[in-house]
Please model this.
Amino acid sequence: MGVNISNYENLLNMINISSKEIEKQISEIKLSFFDIRNDLIEYKMHVPIFVYPFYNFIVREKRLPTQEEYWNEYINVNKEWFAKTSLSEDLIKALKARAYRTYPSLVRDIHFNKLASESGLFESVIYNDKLDVEDGVDLLVLKNNKCFAVNLYTKTRRAIESRFKKAYRHKKLDDSITNVEFPVEFKGSVKCGNFFLYGIDDIKRLAEICN
Model:
């Protein structure tokens, strides 16, 4: 049985921040990263989902978190997991490093989703964090009365590998929904402060694919 779209609330309706406001906010945010990777944290341990705390913060605070605020939200949302999981200081540092690396892609995705919803090129644009996590759909768009499930990722080796793993894990969508693989070249990205974002040209290309 496929996914029933009516079961998923459109989170974009709960986020009253425009793509321009996102750009303004992140232009003042400085990114930092830790050169730490641990195989247990990266590949073997089932760590809490990174998506939920990000949107949890935005819906509550009506703005984007900084990296540190996002990490604190991640800990707070998952405090029971941290309490029962015995992590060494090194493993916590590795998990924090992974969360910090994940953060820019979460910002990039919400900006893309808002840009798509503002573009007027689609009848409807839907984002739902559970749909993202449980069914692997980054965005649902309605175009010419047809529904498309968009899988958005940068055209890099790591992102492509991650996308194929994600596709393998999730169940098939309803037959009425067309799956769209949408890798984006980083070279054409829009620079905003320390961030690279998808631009309106990417939205127009998605609309052409859906045509």
The two ends are 27 Å apart (CA to CA). Strands lie at 124-126, 139-143, 146-154, 177-184, 190-192, 195-197. The longest strand covers residues 146-154.
